[in-house]
Amino acid sequence: MTADVTAPRTAAGAVVEVRRSARRRRTVAAYREDGKVVVLIPARMTRAEEKRWVATMLARLERSERRRRPSDDSLMQRACELNRKYLDGLAVPDSVRWVDNQNSRWGSCTPRTRRSGSPGGSRGCRPG
Predict the structure, then answer these.
(1) Is residue 126 over pLDDT 60?
(2) How far apart are CA 66 and CA 48, in angstroms?
(3) pTM of the model
């Protein structure tokens, strides 16, 4: 594959590397790699088209990541909904948070014995 790589540059706070390929005909793609955004475009595109597509793909990538990374509060809310729906409220999570280092699991938990009146209290699921 022959590719012309445009030098990395900053756009909206992100380091962007544009890779042009003679084999790529119509599609444009973007992904994150080593802390930068890589945008793949056909070699025949003009610099103006490249600029437009880089902006478009940065926006798409940002939207996609926002959907994929819910806040800890929304994760706790979802855990409580699932707990009520499937477990009749038997599970009471202390915390629920998003992690980036699980590529092949859907989740993990650390069970522990809950003591009543323990210091710090639990956010847990509230009735309702």
Answers:
(1) yes
(2) 28
(3) 0.51
